[in-house]
């Protein structure tokens, strides 16, 4: 059983050993997402997720449901994030998006490291930035972007039926999905969550660049 302080040290150590792949793509826009590790908390909105055995002080990742009013990917599961502004680093963008989307203001000391860049079918190169959010007690969704905020226990990403890999007609690569509760998350978000599990928790240098995304994420 790991306490959250031990979990933080584990994640930091595994990220230090991990050689990040930085990617680029012609005409792609640079974006960053925050993979925020937080306390699961009491009274957290888990949307009916089963409570698997986890650490004695349970930890979770902060995910959102995108606003249904958005033009791109309305209602989908997401990590807080967005485009990197001119002059920003990926880390600065991830922290800014956390504050803008869910009202969570963190300093640079919260940054634990990066995972691999992921090139999306919709024209982005996403840089995942892992941050330590701690208790994160006061989270406020920005209604223009976020429908709801969810603390999903880390144990949910370590289920025996995770990940789900599907063949895709016309593609040499498999579609990756991560189940949560009775729902599932698709790549690119699922690919980032899977690599977080593999690298940060399990200590395995697993790459996810070749996983396919569902057709609805291509736009």
Portion of residues in helices? 10-25%
CATH topology of the domain at 4-155: Nucleoside Triphosphate Pyrophosphohydrolase
CATH C-level category of the domain at 4-155 = Alpha Beta
Tally of individual helices: 3
Can you give a write-up of this model?
With 219 residues, the protein is α+β, with helices and mostly antiparallel strands. The chain has a domain at 4-155: Alpha-Beta Complex (Nucleoside Triphosphate Pyrophosphohydrolase), CATH 3.90.79.10. It has 3 helices and 11 strands; from the N terminus they run H-E-E-E-E-H-E-E-E-E-E-E-E-H. The chain has helices at 4-17, 90-102, 189-201, and strands at residues 29-39, 59-66, 77-78, 81-83, 111-114, 118-119, 124-134, 146-153, 164-166, 175-180, 183-186. The strands form 2 sheets. Strands 1, 2, 3, 4, 5, 6, 7 and 8 form an 8-stranded mixed beta sheet that branches. A hairpin with an 8-residue loop joins strand 9 and strand 10 (175-180). The longest helix is centred in the first third of the chain and has 14 residues, at 4-17. The radius of gyration is 16 Å and the shape is globular. The termini are far apart. 39% of the residues are buried.
